[in-house]
UniProtKB/TrEMBL annotation:
Species the sequence originates in: Vibrio inusitatus NBRC 102082
Domain HTH araC/xylS-type: 190-288
Lineage: Bacteria, Pseudomonadati, Pseudomonadota, Gammaproteobacteria, Vibrionales
This protein's name: AraC family transcriptional regulator
A GO term for molecular function: sequence-specific DNA binding
Pfam family, one: HTH_18
Length: 290
């Protein structure tokens, strides 16, 4: 069960929407954990064991597994050579990020079958693992745009593997996934709310929120519609005007200063929006409730 193992948050790279991390001398136990992202994990110069969900199997040189989000997994490995250290290369990417890519790019929609199959975990062939290694070994020497192109290349390579096998006899319990997704969403909502609370007086945009949460603008838009029942712009406007109403009642600050303090630098626009929302002008509101 997800709630009995550790959530390992994937550190984000600045200026990138996915992550690749190569770990050398990765010997010993990597404790059971899970991510909210897909993980493509490649072992090199390695001998040991690994587990995904209820599956346990051998990990060796060029073992390449694709693990679905929220699936517990662990490794216990040693180097298989005195001359070469054990290496683990992990590539993480988010389900919603790839879903948005697939929605907008017809060419990527063939990946749907791969992602569905990944719910049971996939063990890819040694030949595919070697092809994947040749791609990821060059990532450090290319630009972010070229790295993104390399990720799409990787996804294409693994989707074409005819020798790939599934690791689990059944997919994870959907109820557990639903619980994990609810926890993940709650964390995002909390982070989103804190960002707005700290920056509402600035000219923040949907893009700023998406960057802060390391997701797409369309995902943020859906989050507002699902959880706040209104758009981001409507939510931000109400947040600012409600804070302005508090300042009108609790302080003696000039109305123009209050407007500026909540993010409106045009008092006429502030007055119009305030009256539209509260059915009275800021001055009338102060007189009535102050």
């Amino acid at each position: 069960m997800v709630d009995r193992v550790k959530l390992e948050k994937v550190p984000q790279r600045q200026g990138a929407s996915w992550r690749c991390l190569a770990t050398w001398n990765c010997e010993g136990l990597c404790e059971r954990h899970y991510h909210h992202e897909y993980e493509l994990v490649l072992h090199r110069n390695t001998a040991g064991k690994g587990s995904i969900g209820h599956y346990e199997g051998v990990v060796e040189h060029n073992s390449l597994w694709l693990i679905a989000p929220n699936t517990p997994h662990a490794f216990n490995c040693q180097s298989d050579s005195k001359d070469k250290p054990a290496q683990r290369i992990s590539v993480w990417f988010k389900r919603e990020w790839l879903a948005n890519m697939m929605f907008n790019c017809i060419e990527l929609r063939k990946l749907e079958a791969l992602l569905k199959r990944a719910q049971k975990g996939i063990c890819l062939s040694k030949e595919t693992a070697e092809r994947v290694y040749r791609v990821v070994s060059k990532l450090d020497n290319i630009t972010h745009i070229e790295q993104l192109a390399s990720l799409i290349t990787l996804l294409g390579i693994i989707s074409e593997d005819k020798q790939a096998t599934t690791l689990l006899s059944f997919a994870r319990d959907s109820a557990s996934d639903h619980k994990a997704n609810k926890i993940h969403t709650a964390e995002k909502i909390e982070k989103l709310s804190h960002f707005i609370d700290s920056n509402y007086h600035k000219p923040i945009t949907l893009g700023d929120l998406a960057k802060h949460l390391c997701t797409s603008e369309s995902s943020i838009h859906r989050m507002f519609e699902a959880h706040f029942r209104e758009s981001f712009s409507q939510y931000l406007k109400k947040f600012r005007l409600n804070h302005a109403a508090e300042l009108l009642v609790q302080t003696k600050q000039p109305i123009q200063l209050i407007a500026e303090n909540v993010g409106y630098h045009n008092q006429a626009n502030f007055n119009r929006l305030f009256k539209q929302y509260k059915q009275m002008t800021p001055r009338q509101y102060r007189v009535q409730f102050g």
